[in-house]
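Can anyone check this?
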Amino acid sequence: MQITVLCWNFERNGADDPAKRLRAHEKLVSLNPHLVFRQEMWGADANGNAIMYELEDVLGLRGWLGPQSCTAVFADPRVFRTLREWPNTGPMWVLPPTALTMRYLPAGNEAIPLAVASYHLNYASPTNRLAEAEWLSTWADKKWTTPDGETVRMPALFGGDNNGYPAPGLDGDLALPELAKINDQPHRLHRSYIGPNGTRLMDTRPDEALRTAGMEDVARQWATARGGDKTAVSRTVNACETHGPDSRIDRIYVTTDLLDAVTGVDVIEVPLDLSDHHIVRLTLDGERLSDILNRQPIEVAA
């Protein structure tokens, strides 16, 4: 079984346009997802969560809406079951994540669950963005007690809008913007920080923080050691006059124990009249995922 995970910041949740919202989520349906990380869920809590239930119906998935309708997770209930919600996300979040403990059902009831989170780091403050990434890392440190009484760390799977860049150095990844070539001056502040020598550097610190905490950017991994496919690191946001060149600010991170289950990463481009962000797609080998969650050795082909 192949598991499909999608991550998408759908701009303003359609901006109160039901036809646009339907079109967007029919696009997600066409990709046959089992797990969806959504950002910018504005208005989904209005009228008794009416839009959230509407989206569940369109997607054919069960949904969980995070605090302040900033983010959401949708999951195929035949594949994933939530064991716990984490509504207290820490003090630093401007746009709180949706964080859950989820059972991957094909792995069985004695398998270790997954910590999953849909997140949206702060747009305007690189200082706050770094703190949010540090708090996000706490879901890569959640513990689970196995049936035999052993306490272990759960594997983690996160997807979101980072509002910052991946660290440079990967062949094929997009180059960091040049600060002076970003025409919108407030945006220069939003996407940079003051480095040790007093000059402004483009903000890659959340990516570096998550990777320090044992998370890996699956696109980066797939484009190098895992698969060598440079399309994995395609843009997720188009260049524009004010904000600078193409960028890859939407990313999916996993703890390193999940990397052996990855079978592909790519970016599904959507037209700009639908959203200002593209869709990141991760595919996982379901049998390998089960083995990892049951702590079985992965067979390596000869």
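Reply from J.R.: I decoded it. The chain has one domain: 2-293.
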